[in-house]
Prior knowledge:
Largest sheet of chain A: 9 strands, mixed
Low-confidence stretches of chain A: none
Structural class of chain A: alpha/beta
Radius of gyration of chain A: 21 Å
Helix content of chain A: 25-40%
Oligomer: homotetramer
Shape of chain A: globular
Number of strands of chain A: 17
Largest interface: A-B, 38 and 38 residues
Amino acid sequence: MPQKKRLNVGLIGYGFMGKVHSNAYLQAPRFFDLPYQPVLKAVCARTPEKAKEFAANWGYESVESDWRALVRRADIDLIDIASPNDTHAEIAIAAAQAGKMVCCEKPLARSAAEARPMVEAVEKAGVANMVWYNYRRVPAVALLKKLLDEGRFGRIFHYRSQFLQDWTISQDLPQGGQALWRLDAAVAGSGVTGDLLAHNIDMALYLNGPITEVTAMTETFIKERKHNLTGKVAPVTIDDASAFLCRFENGSLAMFEATRYARGHKALFTLEINGERSSATWDLHDMHRLGYFDHRDPGEVRGWRSIHVSDGDQPYMGHWWVPGLQIGYEATFIHQLADFLIAAGGGKSIGPTFRDGLATDYVTDAVLKSARSRQWEKVEGQ
Amino acid sequence: MPQKKRLNVGLIGYGFMGKVHSNAYLQAPRFFDLPYQPVLKAVCARTPEKAKEFAANWGYESVESDWRALVRRADIDLIDIASPNDTHAEIAIAAAQAGKMVCCEKPLARSAAEARPMVEAVEKAGVANMVWYNYRRVPAVALLKKLLDEGRFGRIFHYRSQFLQDWTISQDLPQGGQALWRLDAAVAGSGVTGDLLAHNIDMALYLNGPITEVTAMTETFIKERKHNLTGKVAPVTIDDASAFLCRFENGSLAMFEATRYARGHKALFTLEINGERSSATWDLHDMHRLGYFDHRDPGEVRGWRSIHVSDGDQPYMGHWWVPGLQIGYEATFIHQLADFLIAAGGGKSIGPTFRDGLATDYVTDAVLKSARSRQWEKVEGQ
Amino acid sequence: MPQKKRLNVGLIGYGFMGKVHSNAYLQAPRFFDLPYQPVLKAVCARTPEKAKEFAANWGYESVESDWRALVRRADIDLIDIASPNDTHAEIAIAAAQAGKMVCCEKPLARSAAEARPMVEAVEKAGVANMVWYNYRRVPAVALLKKLLDEGRFGRIFHYRSQFLQDWTISQDLPQGGQALWRLDAAVAGSGVTGDLLAHNIDMALYLNGPITEVTAMTETFIKERKHNLTGKVAPVTIDDASAFLCRFENGSLAMFEATRYARGHKALFTLEINGERSSATWDLHDMHRLGYFDHRDPGEVRGWRSIHVSDGDQPYMGHWWVPGLQIGYEATFIHQLADFLIAAGGGKSIGPTFRDGLATDYVTDAVLKSARSRQWEKVEGQ
Amino acid sequence: MPQKKRLNVGLIGYGFMGKVHSNAYLQAPRFFDLPYQPVLKAVCARTPEKAKEFAANWGYESVESDWRALVRRADIDLIDIASPNDTHAEIAIAAAQAGKMVCCEKPLARSAAEARPMVEAVEKAGVANMVWYNYRRVPAVALLKKLLDEGRFGRIFHYRSQFLQDWTISQDLPQGGQALWRLDAAVAGSGVTGDLLAHNIDMALYLNGPITEVTAMTETFIKERKHNLTGKVAPVTIDDASAFLCRFENGSLAMFEATRYARGHKALFTLEINGERSSATWDLHDMHRLGYFDHRDPGEVRGWRSIHVSDGDQPYMGHWWVPGLQIGYEATFIHQLADFLIAAGGGKSIGPTFRDGLATDYVTDAVLKSARSRQWEKVEGQ
């Protein structure tokens, strides 16, 4: 085997996403043939003990407490941003200016206005960049994309997508601080719109093309919660639920919805697409299955197929086990990283790039604007 | 057994709905203990041969070709309107004025303006009346209603409902005439909004209470079709797809959608309701099953239950077979008729009454209005 | 319409099966074009009040309390036997000798020895005959039969079938008498072997051909129950559970099982068949769906199809509603009666005939024999 | 963090199982708090190039081509046997005699006679030992075990388990050699009985206790295949399909089946257990779901629950992601290794030990014997 080029990774953030990304750097080279060998060089976090513990568990060689120091390090090739949303822009721009590859958690930023300079920075610097919209790399979703690209669906009439959770229903749950910054709009930008709908939208843009206009509604079911930083009850600033109708450039109609108040659903990310000839469904709770209907099947045996996407001739699965055996959530990050490194090895970026992340932010901006204006709103930047 | 009172039925229309209603009059007394014995006295249709054939098959004693003649007959106790939507108002009002019980196919009329005098007529006449929104009487739906009424769900956050079909996708399908009047807005009032969404809305008002405001979009995917009455290609006047976001009086958010362009779905009427403690799902393609989630189950064994609604202690099922055995679509009409006749025997009307039918028309009016105005529209008449 | 020939029906038994058969005589001519118009001429039962009540509900013109008197009546064309198993042979033979058509509930008799003279009697008399193995006429099953006959499956490797119930688990349930004769071997012949497995076997013989040999086990989980006729606790004489392995003449291997001790299953009759190219599954709890897998589909979109058998081009469904709408359990009897009358109108019998019923009895005999002998046993009469 | 004790691993075999085991040694310490830090010290394989390539990918420090040399190495603490079945006994015994911990792929050996000395060896040496029956550590299965241990099911009546595959249907598939030794009885011991049924049996013994007697049938559908080692067509020596009925010591009845000729199923390992109060189902194609029915639920809302086993309070899942997100097949090996190392750290072995592996071999022996004798056969060694 030829010696692989070492790629020194500097990770910022050590929460849930830090864990998932670290796992991807370790696992990707064992299952995929990559032009780079990622090396876990440094992890950066404000609390040194936490960072050290994280580094020990995952094998990071060093620890930083100031992201600026990390970005300045000459021995770092790639900056991975897994810290809260309000930190993405500043870090990403600095990293790009320092000539690092940049991988950023989603959403790219709290708004399109904040995201736009990030895109400019990475494009000006010419550094490989991506946003961790990992669900594009679920094998069943990748298969669906392939089927769409083959023209099996014909004209598209409808698209639907939901992200349903139920973990914030209790009034007793506080908001804010390290554990719950997703419930604080100042840090997160918005509630479920940026946290969950952003996934639905990225996937939709990927599969069905640009969205032109939206009409939306949002709701905050629980109006006040104790804030973790102050210890005091304060108004809740995020949207607990967000839904919108929209039209795509290809003429199809769509409905999107995300909520953390759908009792019984843990992380039910769903999608359905209806075309002239074929339709498909997918959801995250059984993420290895693709629902597929083909009207060209003979009438009497026509039906929805449940495709167990685990065969070697299905996307990514030849790298894993044997037919019938599932892979986990973490594999979607491994796939994305593998695709990214292969593209980067050839001097290219692969979607979702920062520019793709910005496209999603334009849609979430339009959704939030429409919820306020109670009007149809055009999606900008298309 | 005591002698039952004979109830002479006059049916107007002999299409699909005429068949289903006739079956209900014959079957209801065999499975339910009713205060009346329905007698198929007369069927009315414009084409005498068709009416005679229909009468022979179902056992109607006589045939009429003019509905006015039928309504005038002293030996008719109940007028059942199963003719196209543009005929409902005139017939229903005349029947009420003649003192007959009136059962009318849904939607009650082409608009709330047309429906309002119908409500006034039956209420003024004091005649028993109902609209054939049959799906309330699916046993699984009736069970859901009972669970909601018992307070098992707590505060309601979300409601969703779809009616997905795929039978008009072909450009070759003509519009209008006897077979396809549902594709002609002059006769039907609207497209999927009145034909399909009306079912979703009636069910939602029944289960979740009044809707206050909506924002909607509609689309006509195929703009021109041959018209059966003229033989010429003419603009399509109906909505092929219709979707709306709305808010209910109880504070919950909802999404509704109906289309005849969802490839792979024949008659997929779905609903989901999410409450603080419980959630439920149901769909027409497996109409004997109720999905139910109860957060009060112990955490480690919490999951969605698939309730096979076929036991004697579940609604209506004690009248049928043994546990595990399904009933058909037609049973929903039998149940509705049985409930109606039992109520009528006690001098009462039972929902969905004409007034309930009007409430649905107010919502469909708001949906169509919003699709034109591109604004949120209040639902009138609440 | 031409005048149909009247066919006078005499029914023996008024229990669950009497109800289902009566419904079929009334409904079949409304949904199918038949050469006969069935007339509910007489119902026979030992208790006159029960018979009168049943006659009033279903519209029987007269009542008999002695089946011999019924069989002697010149105005009866068809004898329908819906009484307990121990009465089938004597009635059927007398009816055949009287030249009546004979429809008999399953199993044909308590043993093949008892059934053989019944077959001889109807064949000697040349009367149309059938056994009410109704599940062959589930549309999804009829579709499966058609697909098999078209050669879509290739060589068959495996067949599996279960009938799982849970209604006798309680120790408090008594045995015997009118309500629970199925728990009394003297009346029923056996327990689940004759009551449930007989359905599985008839279907298997129909779909997959003759069975050559079996090895079986049976169990009586609850050894003593109060007997309804004596009021005393007595040994339970039936098999509560019965399972067997077998080989078919076509070389395939199979497993069968029936039990009334499978908690959570009401009437879960299942089947699966695996062929070289295709496989299929079906179950009674969602009886309108056929699972179908076709290996000739392209690899990456290969999956199990869930076929919602409700379209006009699928077996029987053109006689009912519109695509997407289900039919009930009772429809299987209507279909069987319609097929029987159409065949009888042409002077023919159609399966399952008495001879087919005997074939099933040969298999259940072998199963019970093997459970005693603890040996593989050949199936006789093949 | 305290320094962990290093545990030097020597792996024998580099096929599919070598890959899965290696992954477990690398991943377990990142997700579980273990008393040992596994070190990938050496991999052993007959072909040095293959071994080097494997070592480079997984990070093994050294390579051996003779397992005896590996077993002799003082720097090896644990021998992991992932080579074909005919090598297990000799290696395991030598490893035990050398005082190493031993982890052996399943089945433990080609027969109980071959396995017995292995058990004696590890027990005499007092070394920690386990057999890689990984499916006990699927979180849904572990949850089921917990529910059973809590007494939720009451008396058990039935157990069923299948392992259905379809990858050997083609006549063109050869047998034997490195790639297909599972099709060669001399190497594998048997066909699906040892390869697949062994999984079903281990799980059943774990969940439902000892099996007392069996009656079985096996079949070889394709009688001759080209042999990879000779290049000549030769008789197929393995069983392609294997099925048996049995009784458990607890009085329950059971059916087991494994085949590689069930078209449409890739690796469909299923189980169902029916108790007096509760029932449960599980299958490998959706391995994160547990079906659970509890008769103590109120009648009208009783139904099968689909438990998405992905919450922190469900077995193992607190070590992974967040609720709603799946884990992969490989996680079952990680869990087993973690449990094994934790037990070994405390000086104990945890099931499935070699003794447990022997218990399964006794059952598979009885199955193969019964298939030949056509008799019920007692299970030895109980």
